[in-house]
Every structure is written in structure tokens, then in C-alpha cells.
Amino acid sequence: MWRGLLIAFLLSFGPAVSNSFARFAYALLLPAMREDLQWNWSQAGALNTVNAFGYLLGALLVRGVVNHTGNRRLFCAGMVLTSLALLATGFTRDITALMTLRVLTGVGGAAIFICGGALSGNVLPQRPAMATTTIGVFFAGGGLGLMLSGAVLPPMLDAQGPAAWPLAWREMGLAGLVMAAAAIWAALQIEEPGAAAGSARWRLAPMAAEFTAYALFAVGYIGYMTFVIAWMRAQGASTGEVVAVWCLLGLATWIAPWVWRVPAERWRGGRPLAAVLATLTIGAALPLFSTHLLALLASAFLFGLGMFSAPSSVGGFIKRALPKPAWGSAMATFTAMFAAGQIGGPVAIGWLADLTGSLRGGLAVSAGLLAMGALAALTQRELGD
Length: 385
What we know:
- By secondary structure, the chain is an all-alpha fold.
- The chain has helices at 2-11, 13-37, 41-69, 71-89, 95-120, 131-160, 165-188, 208-234, 239-259, 261-266, 271-289, 293-307, 309-321, 324-356, 360-377.
- The longest helix is centred in the last third of the chain and has 33 residues, at 324-356.
């Protein structure tokens, strides 16, 4: 069992690179890049939108080839592509080149997230009851990346100024390559889920409520994760406060699998996802009522508890509902919709901020969408019984 948990932990370097470095760390760099490159809020949001577009392309690509190519090969390719694209982002200031690289990190990130999610459920095939735990460990890897980026990047920018943002991308790229080596080794130790006997065919209609809830999560959470640091900076937050909030967000993500372990294993249908989305709703709404540091820390902690637990809940639901050969295809389908939901969110919230002169309205919309997702998830029945 301990070897399996070690493999799941090393595999979790995937979300650390694909999500924490390639997507969420942009929130830490956004104020510096916006100041140094003289962008408006819409341009700043566009970089996360094109990343989500790449994520959508990657999800569609994975969905089309995963049954033939296999999860392990695609996961490994995604780790290499994402890390190299991160590294290259630190060597250009051209917005077109930056957008192109953000697309590539999205493509690679989708392969990591989808195929890693499928592999994580098969780390201990002789102990299927442990699948929920290993899936949770995999998705919690994003918390490690959040803590690392939160502890290093804001102090570096504070010391060296906004123009130091390219160095931040290069550092994340180098760290990503090191983590890629460990994660690839872990992936190669896991039996391909599709190797089991059974049909890869499955139907989306019985999962419609879970699918809808996940779509609302995609649109709702990305606004918070893109702009919450910019919101804090606009309210006068210090670098120390930014570090504290971001690192607590990562820490909460790291401990989330243990917090949600019992609901994930015992609650049926869409109730685990509903509970996660309700937690996210409260976390997203708190900054709207208070910008006191304690409120922001509480917001970060609650959001961290839920952020990666949403895809983990969906992964657990798919694992219970479908045979192993269908896991990769189903995860790819859910992730494609997830990516589509993220595409418009950052630009829409950025546009609203440019229009109103404040990020408050966009953050309120994010909280509302998460609440709607929680209600939708409650209507999902269990399919694997």
C-alpha cells in the first residue's frame, strides 16, 4: 500500500505543473505583467482564456486518441510539453507569442489532468477500495504547486519589481521539468486502465446532472482563481498577505483529500460534488463582504478545500459508474466541457471590471454560478449500484 501511495504522490506532480504552475500561478504574476506590459483587464483575462482554449483542444484530442494511445503515453507527453512551454514563456514579451505558449500549456495540461486522473484510480488495482484515496492524492498535488509558487513568486517580484515576471516563468519551467521526470516514472509503474477486459462504451445522459454541475464549477471557479490576487492588491494587500493567502489556499488543497475522504467513499450520486461546490461558494463569496485578512484567509482555506476536490469527486463518480476502459474517455469528455466553461470566464470578468472599474461584480457572478452548480449536483443519482 505504501508503495502505491508513493506512486500516487509522485503522479500528483502532474497537477502541480499543469494547474498550479501553468494556470493558477498566472494570478500571482498578473498584476506584475499587467503593469510591465501595460495591459487592460480584458487583455490580462485573455491569457487565461487562451489557456482554457488550449485545454479544450487537448481534452478533445485526448478523447479521440486515448483508447488507442493509452493514458500513460499521453500523460508523459503532456508533462514534457507543459514544462517546456512554461520555460519558453519566460523568454518573450510579445503578447501573441505569450498566448501561443498559453495554448500549448493548456493542451499539455489537459493530457496530464485527464490521463493522470484515469491512472490514479488504478494505482492499486488489487485494492479497489483505495481508488478514492489515490485519486484524491493525485488531484491534491495541485496544492503542492500552489504552496511553492505562493512562497517564491510574490517575494521575488516584490524584491526585483514587475519586470522580473519572465524569471518567474523560467523558474516554474525548470521546476516542471524536474517534477516531470518523477511523475513520468510514477506513470510507468501503473497498469493501463484500458487493459482490463470490458467495454469502453458509455452514455452521458444518465450523468447529465453531474455534467451540468461540473460545467457551472468550471465557469465559476476560474474567475476567483484568475483575479483574487489582483482584487487583494487593489484593496491594498501587502506581499506578506498575498503569500499567506496563496499558501493557505495550497495547504487546504493538500489536506482536502483527508477532509473529504468519508463523503467521497460513503456518499452516493452527486452529493460529494454538491458539498464541495457549496464550500467553494462560501469561499468565493467571503471577499465580497470583507477584505479583512482573516476573511481572505478563510476564503482561501475554503476555496482550497474545494478546488481540486471537485474534479476528484467527478473522477470518483466516473470510477464507480463505468468500467475501467471507459474512464479515460469519460474523463476527457467531462474535461472538454470543463475547458469550454473556462474559456469565457476570465475575459467576461475582465470586461466587466473594465466596464465598472471594479472586480467585485465578476467575483459575485463566480460565487453565484458555484451555488447553482451545488444545487444541480444534488439531483444526480448513483449509477454504479
